[in-house]
Design goal:
Fructose-1,6-Bisphosphatase, Chain A, domain 1, seven-stranded mixed sheet, alpha+beta, 9 helices, 2 domains
């Protein structure tokens, strides 16, 4: 798995030095930079004329909004914590010979769900995750078009959601108090990608749920919102049997962990392990996300 298998005991990890308020502010400003383009018809149309392709797992589009968000986030993180390296979707990242020496690292996706951004359906996010010896220990995710910001972490950081309403009013929700409960008795809510739904995922749902007589409510949504829906109990399981990169999942993974959940690998010989970060290959293996109590009940029996 992660080449840093000698990681320290996470129970002793202290994050008092981490300025949650400042990083939330960074995410908020990056969101506003994206919305300046997203909500302006002229800027949005001009952006569509200059879209490039990213070099990532899905050859997804790269826009000026990605670049503006990334430049701002990286500048601010470097100013706050100059000794913590940044691994970003939009940067030329260090080679493994250098990265394997990292203790701490930021994982940044300045605009996850670019296809959803281009479709203007609002299902895109800004993501900043912090890892320690490959484990996600703090995460900050915004859903700019919906006025939502989520954050969570270890060492008593909890997990929170901020809803920005009219006249910039704000409502704070403690995700550890149960989040959203929309579940109907006997129904398994499965969340899957809107733009990357594939045959493997269909087969997984059929084999593990439909063929066993389960009633399934399939929810499709873009970007890291899928992991957040698990964290806030809006969905029960998220099977990801298609490529993702570390920066796609890290921040939301930390929030899910703070809620007691997991992103667990279902890929080859490493089934049952949790996703880790800053690996030699920044491509994630296939995984399933669930709140931990449900996860152990549904998926650990065969391990």
């Amino acid at each position: 798995m992660n080449d840093m298998s000698d990681m320290s005991d996470m129970s002793d990890l202290k994050l008092e030095w981490l300025n949650y308020e400042k990083i939330i502010e960074i995410v908020e400003i990056a969101s506003q930079l994206i919305l300046q383009i997203y909500l302006n018809d002229e800027l949005f149309m001009n952006m569509n004329m200059t879209i490039e392709n990213k070099v990532d797992a899905g050859n997804s589009p790269l826009t000026i909004a990605d670049k503006k968000s990334n430049d701002f986030i990286c500048q601010e993180l470097c100013g706050l914590y100059p000794d913590i390296p940044i691994i970003s979707e939009e940067n030329k990242n260090d080679d493994w010979d250098i990265r394997k020496k990292y203790t701490w690292a930021w994982l940044v996706d300045p605009l996850d769900g670019t296809k959803e951004f281009i479709k203007r359906n609002g299902e895109f996010t800004v993501n900043i995750g912090l890892v320690y010896f490959g484990k996600p220990v703090a995460g900050f995710v915004s859903v700019p078009a919906q006025g939502l910001i989520y954050w969570g972490g270890m060492s008593g950081g909890g997990a929170w959601k901020k809803e920005i309403g009219e006249y910039n009013s704000a409502k704070y929700i403690d995700l550890l108090e149960g989040g959203i409960e929309l579940k109907k008795k006997g129904i398994t809510r499965i969340v899957a990608s809107r733009s990357h739904m594939d045959l493997k995922t269909d087969e997984f749902i059929k084999k593990n749920y439909v063929d066993k007589g389960a009633e399934v409510d399939l929810l499709n949504v873009g970007s890291s919102i899928k992991i957040l829906w698990i964290a806030e109990n809006r969905a029960d399981v998220y099977p990801r049997l298609a490529p993702t990169m570390e920066w796609d999942t890290c921040a939301a993974h930390a929030i899910l962990n703070a809620c007691g959940g997991r992103l667990e690998i279902v890929d080859g010989d490493i089934n049952g392990e949790e996703l880790s970060y800053n690996k030699s290959n920044l491509l994630n293996p296939y995984f399933i996300g669930c709140l931990k109590s449900r996860f152990e009940k549904k998926h650990h029996n065969g391990h």
